Amino acid sequence: MRLLDTLRQGVWSNAGRGRKKVLKDDRRLKSARFNGRTVFSFLFWAVLIGMVFFTFQSWARTGFLNEKVNGYQEKASAQIASLNDSGFANSPAGEEFGKKFIETFLNIPSDQKERENRSKALQGFLAEGLEVGQLENLSDFKGKRVLKSASLYDVKDVSKGAASYVYRINYELFKTVENKEEVDVTKSTPDGKEEVAKEEKVTMKEQSLGTKDQMIVIRLGTDGNSFNVIEQPYYETLPSNTRLTAIKDNTDQADKNTQMEDDLKQFATQFFTSYTTNSVEEMAYLMEKPESLKDLFQYKGLEDFVVYDGQKKGQYIVKALILLQEAGTGLQTKHPFTLVVSKQNNKFYVEELKHTIGG
To answer: Cα(22)–Cα(28) distance, rounded to whole angstroms?
Structure first.
């Protein structure tokens, strides 16, 4: 009986331990599932948020770069357009086209057939919608016009694909007039004899009306490949002969230093003698930025020599006209010079040389 009770207790004890183990394992399984789901969810949302963040960053950066690129493109386009306009205005092709047009336009023959050929050639220079008849009317012009010279004077009113070319021209006008003269003509008389008689002969002669100097303005346009005259040419008078005031020594006369004139005149004589006999390398001992006229000119003297005090103590401004004779000739020319001179180690030294007496 005791043995049976002992066995029963053992069985129930083992069963209890087994049930606890199963429950314990079940609880562990549930905990493991919970932790895995949490990690998965965290990783999923982290990746999603990261993708959204980097997508936004990429979009914002792309927008910023596009804005910068567009700005650069607009700036570059404006610069290119400016260069194109400038290049067109200074184009030798444009100048040459304008000159050829002028040669065709200003040379007007007296012969009607030649005028028709000229008109056809002239039309080839004109833009679409502009006809030769809109440029001139030659019906009453009995004569010819001959171009003597044409040279480009200016280019103005430059815009996108268009510019006005101004040429200085010289041409001569001729008027066709009748020329009557008596000539000897041999005629047969009724009796079969020949006699010499006077007869009036009329010929056409071109009489010069003189030459003219003036300006002509040609408005040219281009599509980047070819040129055309896009408006009627017009004339202008020659620019007036203005006379400008020559450059003068405007240095304050109160700064004039007469006490140093003799010493600096002696130095200037030595300096300009060296200037025409020494090499550039040798002149480096006498001046800051060495120059030389060796083998080109010979020093012949000074004129209008003046010395002023400089901005610093011991500095002097020397102004003079230097007589230079071209090598191998007797031709002398006067050259303006301004020297900024200082004294270094008891010797004069040229800090600056200017080819002017102004300023």
So the answer is: 10
Q: How far apart are the first and last CA of the chain?
A: 141
Relative to beta strand 315-326, strand 194-222 is unpaired
Amino acid at site 325? Q
Task: Determine the Cα angle at 341 with ends 335 and 344, to 5°.
Answer: 145
Work out the number of other CB atoms within 10 angstroms of the CB of residue 127: 13
Residue 342 has which token pair?
Answer: 């200082």
Half-sphere exposure of 147 (CA within 13 A, CB side): 18
Q: Which two tokens stand for residue 278?
A: 């020494």
Degrees, nearest 5: CA angle 112-113-117: 115
Whole-prediction pTM value? Answer: 0.53
How many angstroms separate the CA atoms of 98 and 338, rounded?
45
Return d(Cα 11, Cα 14) in angstroms, integer: 5
Q: What is the greatest pairwise CA distance in the chain?
A: 200
Q: Which domains does the chain have, with CATH numbers?
A: 92-129+141-236 (3.10.450.540), 253-354 (3.10.450.540)
pLDDT (tens digit, 9 = 90+) per residue, 264-308?
999 999 999 999 999 999 999 999 999 999 999 999 999 999 999
Token pair listed for 154: 């200016």
The whole-angstrom separation of Cα 303 and Cα 312 is 26
